[in-house]
């Protein structure tokens, strides 16, 4: 006996309410950023529970991250109280996958206590297999194969299902055998990799009709957030669970390539009566926010929904509750430059003349950019703006370095979301280990980290012997290594390797006093083979790591000696990331999906960085469109204040190079944008190097920096920032675009 709608429905607009209350049958909510898609899903779950349509255990709800799952659970709790207890099936595809595999482990050839391997484990295992096949693991990099396997699994393909071409593309045509051997090893180890958490459930559900029927019965309601970024395997999985036999006859689930081994893959068994099996699936998404194409996500899944689920109700939400009219106007104008999109309207009905326009600023270089952003944040802080409400979203992880250093310097709390902090990255730790040993030959921990990185044929036995010798003689491991290299206690190969390591370090130590430390660091990374190790690595993240290494060297320029730099990093590493602290969030654009902040900074809007050159080189037009969607995701994270930055210069290999403002800046409508000429909004930051320096940086091919000619002196510098300036630059852009970042093709774009 209720009067009016229950509380949780209050405040929803009619379309949102329809999406919440249409509980039966398939529903697709297709809508732009900030229109309440996630809120609709949450409320829908609350509604299903509150009206007794299902128990918490009968709802399958998929989010894109574990964090989003936790938040959703919390919100449902707020809406309906204790009823949310349980919700055992709310999580990411992977976390739900683990659960399914544990329940039926024996059907996947595992015991229910199987372990889940991390990337390092996987690579080690693959390496053993490659060697066991008698293949050269330098030519056939284990990391590359690990990514190939992951790619296949994301398409739902087991060893027998990959195409002949794929199978031949690795290990002298032995890709399929290796994949098969890898799966066999996993079984022996009673282990799964990440891809298996998607692949095993598909296998189990396909092969065992009774089990599938059991899940059909169990999951009365299925809900999926961020549907535009589901990959093929996740899609097949959803279809198996959601599609009932009566409707599936015409659309059997089939892997996108290859043939299945055991019988017809997609056929679903006859299930219980259709009436008790109505498909109550609700997916929400935004095709304009599909940003994981490079990782196998298929935006087509969203476009295909109505075909897959006949009679689906499609609901569009058009009112944006998140952002100001200026931010929305800017985002909508930008994304309209994409061709392959469904197109949709977004509006806000609270345009406020007080709302600030989208701010575009320019800085001399990335340190300047970090300094200015830091000042702006401090100013916000003085106005009692919570740091938790501020985010900095970067295109590439190396950009974080300047911000992290700056924030530590001024004592501003920050946290990095969705990845390690800059100095905690594997490649940075490795490089730092080399530098530490050079600065302090007694640093055994650092020595052990890199003595066999890159691989020098030093096995565990040899390293243990270095250890034992060091302990017996009471000397550092480096010294012990030098001793062992001259004795005959080791086999020739490890002995030669140790001799080289010892000689290298001795030479670098000699250089310490005479060579500028940045130069020395470059020499060390080159002569040790460390840089080459990543250059030869065909894995998708290798170029990102090389970028990070370059940034590391670049950042050393700010310190007067190697020792001063090492001290700085040690202090940086000492700062804790405390979850409860009020702190600025720093993350990549990819990690920012679904989030919102009062104030957002988007630094580094320069050609080559954003859009990223590698995305353009590899993906052409579709690569550019995915970059633009990423920009759209970035813009639409902001509620009120949005600051976009670009720098005019980047130091690359110690050389200054002028950069071009991103073409995305041109795609922002002037009506909603304010250009901060010479950055005066922050109390002015001038060109620290004087205008002449700027003039000297004119681009060889004419174009952007040449505009210095138009004014001369300081005038010229501030012209750089004005709208007409960068728009003129556009016209001359063609030849200049790939100049600074160009030619590194054949690599993948920055991945979260
Ligand atoms: P994205 O595409 O970025 O994931 P979304 O469509 O999932 O966005 P939500 O995050 O659900 O959007 O909602 C955006 C913001 O608008 C949230 O702060 C949410 O609480 C608020 N909001 C949504 N619907 C309403 C409403 N009917 N009344 C008031 N606020 C709302
Ligand atoms: Mg959302």
From TrEMBL:
Top-level EC class: isomerase
UvrD-like helicase C-terminal domain location: 325-594
Protein residues bound to ATP: 31-38
Stretch list, region Disordered: 1-13, 248-274, 700-720
CDD domains, alphabetized: DEXQc_UvrD, SF1_C_UvrD
InterPro entries in UniProt: DExx_box_DNA_helicase_dom_sf, DNA_helicase_UvrD-like_C, DNA_helicase_UvrD/REP, P-loop_NTPase, UvrD-like_ATP-bd
GO MF term set: DNA helicase activity; hydrolase activity
UniProt entry keywords in alphabetical sequence: ATP-binding, DNA-binding, Helicase, Hydrolase, Isomerase, Nucleotide-binding
Catalytic activity as recorded in UniProt: ATP + H2O = ADP + phosphate + H(+); Couples ATP hydrolysis with the unwinding of duplex DNA by translocating in the 3'-5' direction
EC number: 5.6.2.4
Segments forming domain UvrD-like helicase ATP-binding: 10-324
Keyword Cell inner membrane: no
Similarity comment text for this entry: Belongs to the helicase family. UvrD subfamily.
Protein's UniProt name: DNA 3'-5' helicase
């Amino acid at each position: 006996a209720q009067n009016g709608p229950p509380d949780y429905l209050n405040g929803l607009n009619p379309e949102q309410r329809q999406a919440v209350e249409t509980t039966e049958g398939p529903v697709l909510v297709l809508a732009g950023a900030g229109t309440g898609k996630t809120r609709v899903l949450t409320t829908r779950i609350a509604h299903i529970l509150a009206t007794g349509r299902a128990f918490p255990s009968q709802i399958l709800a998929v989010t894109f991250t574990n964090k989003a799952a936790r938040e959703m659970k919390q919100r449902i709790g707020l809406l309906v109280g204790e009823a949310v207890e349980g919700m055992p099936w709310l999580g990411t595809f992977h976390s739900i996958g683990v659960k399914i595999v544990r329940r039926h482990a024996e059907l996947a050839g595992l015991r229910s206590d199987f372990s889940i391997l991390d990337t390092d484990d996987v690579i080690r295992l693959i390496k053993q297999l490659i060697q066991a096949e008698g293949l050269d693991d330098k030519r056939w990099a284990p990391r590359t194969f690990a990514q190939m396997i992951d790619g296949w699994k994301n398409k739902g393909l087991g060893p027998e299902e990959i195409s002949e071409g794929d199978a031949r593309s690795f290990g002298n045509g032995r890709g399929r055998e290796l994949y098969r051997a890898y799966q066999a090893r996993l079984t022996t180890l009673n282990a799964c990799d990440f891809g298996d958490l998607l692949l095993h459930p598909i296998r189990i559900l396909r092969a065992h009709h009774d089990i599938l029927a059991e899940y059909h019965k169990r999951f009365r309601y299925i809900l999926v957030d961020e549907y535009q970024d589901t990959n093929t395997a996740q899609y097949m999985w959803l279809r198996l669970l959601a599609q009932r036999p009566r409707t599936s006859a015409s659309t059997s689930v089939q892997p996108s390539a290859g043939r299945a081994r055991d019988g017809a893959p997609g056929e679903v068994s006859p299930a219980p009566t259709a009436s008790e099996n109505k498909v109550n699936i609700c997916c929400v998404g935004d095709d304009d926010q599909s940003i994981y194409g490079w990782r196998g996500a298929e935006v087509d899944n969203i476009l295909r929904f109505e075909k897959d689920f006949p009679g689906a109700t499609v609901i569009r939400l058009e009112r944006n509750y998140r952002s100001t009219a200026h931010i929305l106007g800017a985002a909508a104008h930008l994304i309209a430059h994409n061709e392959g999109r469904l197109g949709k309207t977004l509006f806000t009905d609270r345009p406020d003349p007080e709302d600030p326009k989208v701010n575009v600023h320019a800085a001399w270089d990335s340190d300047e950019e970090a300094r200015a952003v830091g000042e702006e944040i401090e100013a916000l802080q003085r106005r009692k703006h919570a740091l938790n409400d501020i985010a900095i979203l970067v295109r590439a992880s190396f950009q974080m370095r300047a911000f992290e250093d700056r924030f530590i310097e001024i004592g501003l709390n920050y946290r990095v979301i969705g990845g390690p902090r800059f100095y905690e990255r594997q490649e940075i730790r490795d490089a730092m280990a080399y530098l530490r040993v050079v600065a302090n030959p007694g640093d055994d921990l650092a020595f052990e980290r890199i003595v066999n990185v890159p691989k020098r044929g030093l096995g565990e036995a040899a390293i243990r012997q270095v250890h034992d010798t060091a302990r017996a003689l009471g000397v550092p491991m480096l010294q012990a290594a030098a001793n062992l290299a001259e004795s005959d206690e080791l086999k020739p190969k490890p002995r030669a390797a140790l001799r080289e390591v010892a000689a290298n370090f001795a030479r670098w130590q000699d250089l310490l006093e005479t060579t500028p430390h940045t130069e020395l660091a470059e020499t060390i990374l080159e002569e040790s083979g460390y840089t080459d190790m990543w250059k030869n690595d065909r894995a998708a993240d290798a170029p990102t790591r090389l970028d990070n290494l370059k940034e590391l060297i670049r950042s050393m320029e700010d310190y007067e000696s190697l020792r001063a730099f090492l001290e700085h990093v040690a202090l940086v590493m000492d700062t804790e990331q405390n979850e409860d602290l009020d702190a600025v969030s720093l993350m990549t654009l990819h990690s920012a999906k679904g989030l919102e902040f009062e104030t957002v900074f988007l630094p580094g809007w320069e050609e080559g960085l954003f859009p990223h050159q590698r995305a353009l080189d590899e993906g052409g037009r579709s690569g550019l469109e995915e970059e633009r969607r990423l920009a759209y995701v970035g813009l639409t994270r902001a509620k009120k204040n949005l600051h976009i930055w670009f720098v005019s210069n980047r130091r690359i290999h110690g050389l200054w190079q002028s950069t071009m403002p991103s073409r995305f800046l041109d795609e922002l409508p002037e009506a909603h944008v304010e250009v901060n000429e010479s950055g005066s909004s922050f109390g002015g930051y001038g060109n620290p190097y004087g205008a002449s320096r700027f003039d000297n940086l004119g681009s060889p091919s004419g174009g952007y920096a040449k505009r210095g000619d138009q004014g001369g002196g300081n005038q010229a510098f501030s012209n750089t920032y004005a709208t007409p300036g960068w728009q003129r630059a556009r016209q001359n852009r063609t030849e200049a675009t790939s100049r600074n970042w160009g030619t590194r093709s054949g690599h993948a774009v920055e991945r979260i």
